[in-house]
Amino acid sequence: MKWIVSSLLLAIGLALGGWFTGHGFEAGRNARIVTVKGLAERDVKADLALWQLRFVRAGDQLATVQAAIQQDDTAVTAFLTRQGLGPEAIAFRNLEVTDRAAQTWGDGKYPSRYIIVRTVMLRSADVDKVAAAYQASGALVDAGVVLGGENPGNNGGPTYLFDGINALKPAMIAAATKNARDAAEQFARDAGSRLGGIQRASQGVFEILPRDKAPMLQADKQINKTVRVVATLEYRLE
Asked: Pfam families, alphabetically (predicted)?
């Protein structure tokens, strides 16, 4: 008798297990997931400007070249001061002296023996003053200052940075998440379903883009920028 009861209990257990397993698979097959993206953007203004100015002098007499580069340095400092960018805005100065006669390569023919390049790095939170100074920098050329040095690319203008992105993150993530949920709710209504809970969420990378979307424009060359983030969420449709 005991073994009969045990057999009955085992049979009932197997039957119930099969019922739950079958319905579990059915629920899995019927579960529908919708993936949506939410976008958030903010227009911001750069809060830091960096401007590297390089200017050069060359000649065959070292003392003469040194005196000329010192005059240029004085002219650049005076120009920046007139633009409202005093000595406190100058991050550092660097001096490079090249003696071509001491070089081990080349054929010994060169137009000038000595080349001196002075670099002045400007760092300021007043981005408008830096931009205005750059627009007026032709006055330095008119004064005889040879900008560019041996690497003209270093005088490609100021670089404008935005350092306040951490303060924007909470509000922007909330806005992107809300936009994604609004899209998911619309999808659920169109599908005749009800929106369930979040299955998975992924926050995209915060991007700093140029506000003006013209070709070849770089964000670090524009004072005005756009911060963008895209959130990706998966919802269950019930």
From this structure: SIMPL (PF04402)
CA dist 57 and 68 (Å) reads 7
Above pLDDT 70, what percent of the chain? 82
Which CATH number fits the domain that encloses residue 57?
3.30.70
Is the CB of residue 53 less than 8 Å from the CB of residue 236? Answer: no
Q: What is the dihedral of CA 217, 218, 220, 226, to 10 degrees?
A: 80
Separation CA 234–CA 35 (nearest Å): 4
CA distance 180 to 195: 12
Distance, C-alpha 125 to centroid of its chain = 17
| Contacts (Cβ under 8 Å, ≥6 apart) of 174 | none
- Which residue shows structure tokens 């756009």? 226
Q: Which residues pair with 52 in a beta bridge?
A: 121
3-class DSSP state for residue 2? helix
Per DSSP, what are the bridge partners of residue 118? Answer: 55, 95
Summarised one tens digit per residue, pLDDT across range 123-156 is 999 999 999 999 999 999 999 999 985 444 445 7
79 vs 77: CA distance, rounded Å: 5
User: Which of 104, 137, 161 is where one domain is finished?
Assistant: 161
Total structural domains within the chain: 2
pTM: predicted TM-score of the whole model, two decimal places: 0.77
Give every CB contact of residue 33 below 8 A, 6+ residues apart in sequence: 199, 234, 235, 236, 237
Can you tell me whether residue 136 is helix, strand or coil?
A: coil
Looking up residue 182, the CATH number of its domain turns out to be 3.30.110.170
